[in-house]
């Protein structure tokens, strides 16, 4: 006898649960995510302190989300690479370097956004 399919809504709730679980795992276990999360919290506090505009909030939240998301993907790539080939291999090293490079691009863009928002408010 075939089990009835769960509803679309139930599947979406389960998916959101898995995503939240993954986010919590990243925050609890990954130093790089912990640093990015802390910087994000500081920027949110700074946003309230300096009363940034709605547009600045949008840019700041987007930048924080972008960096943390790509950092999470970088962590996933590293975990997959280590699972597939636990010993050192130059190709695995190259894959990890490329994933880290993506984080660098996101962090650089986010830093520029932060500087554009806060330098005029500080000086």
From TrEMBL:
Pfam families, A to Z: DAGK_prokar (PF01219)
* Record keywords, A-Z: ATP-binding, Cell membrane, Kinase, Lipid biosynthesis, Lipid metabolism, Membrane, Nucleotide-binding, Phospholipid biosynthesis, Phospholipid metabolism, Transferase, Transmembrane, Transmembrane helix
Q: What is its main location?
A: membrane
Where are its TM segments located? 31-51, 98-119
Q: List the CDD domains.
A: UDPK_IM_like (cd14265)
Family membership, please give it: Belongs to the bacterial diacylglycerol kinase family.
Q: How does it sit in the membrane?
A: Multi-pass membrane protein
Gene3D superfamilies linked:
1.10.287.3610
List the Gene Ontology MF annotations in alphabetical order: kinase activity
Which InterPro entries does the protein's record reference? DAGK (IPR000829), DAGK_sf (IPR036945), UDPK (IPR033717)
Tell me which domain of life the UniProt entry assigns to the organism this sequence originates from.
Answer: Bacteria
Q: Does the keyword Metal-binding apply?
A: no
Record's protein name: Diacylglycerol kinase
Q: Where does the record place it?
A: Cell membrane
């Amino acid at each position: 006898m075939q089990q009835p399919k769960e509803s679309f809504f139930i599947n979406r709730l389960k998916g959101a649960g898995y995503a939240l679980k993954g986010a919590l795992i990243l925050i609890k276990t990954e130093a790089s995510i912990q640093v990015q999360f802390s910087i994000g919290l500081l920027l949110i506090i700074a946003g309230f302190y300096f009363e940034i505009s709605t547009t600045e909030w949008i840019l700041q939240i987007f930048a924080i989300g972008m960096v943390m998301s790509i950092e999470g993907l970088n962590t996933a790539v590293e975990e997959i690479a280590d699972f597939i080939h636990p010993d050192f291999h130059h190709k695995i090293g190259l894959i990890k370097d490329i994933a880290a490079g993506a984080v660098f691009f996101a962090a650089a863009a986010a830093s520029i956004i932060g500087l554009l928002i806060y330098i005029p408010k500080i000086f």
